[in-house]
Amino acid sequence: MPIVVFYEPESLTAAQYNEIVAELETKMKFPWDGLNNTMCFGTGNKLRVIDLWDSQEKFEKFCETLIPMIEKHGLKMAPPKIEEAYSSLEHGALRRYETANA
Question: 3-state class of 22 per DSSP?
């Protein structure tokens, strides 16, 4: 089941985000397995990140690499909010997902 993951760190700048992504790219082949879409948004030190993953399992595998990097960079945040995905619009195509809640 696809999931949406919303990260809301206490503080995240573009420089910090770029450093973490660059480090991820050296440790894992991009595109990361199971990641359909990611978006970083916000301003100043209040950036947020939202991801669309193929499954909870693939996201958890990614976290094995991501979480140590977040800790290394001193970012503080609560666990991300995770919800089942209902649909997405990707490259002009609407994609709907089967869920028990739909």
Answer: helix
Share of the chain above pLDDT 90, in %: 76
Instruction: Write the DSSP string, 43-99.
Output: STTB-EEEEEES-HHHHHHHHHHHHHHHHHTT--BPPPEEEE--EEEETTEEEE---
The rounded distance, in Å, linking the Cα atoms of 29 and 58 is 14
Q: Is the pLDDT of residue 100 over 60?
A: no
Domains and CATH numbers, the chain: 3-96 (3.30.70.100)
pLDDT tens for residues 5-54?
A: 999 999 999 999 999 999 999 998 888 899 999 999 999 999 999 999 99
pLDDT tens, position by position, 53-74: 999 999 999 999 999 999 999 9
Q: What is the distance between the alpha carbons of residues 53 and 51, in angstroms, rounded to a whole number?
A: 6
> What is the rounded CA–CA span in Å between residue 39 and residue 51?
6
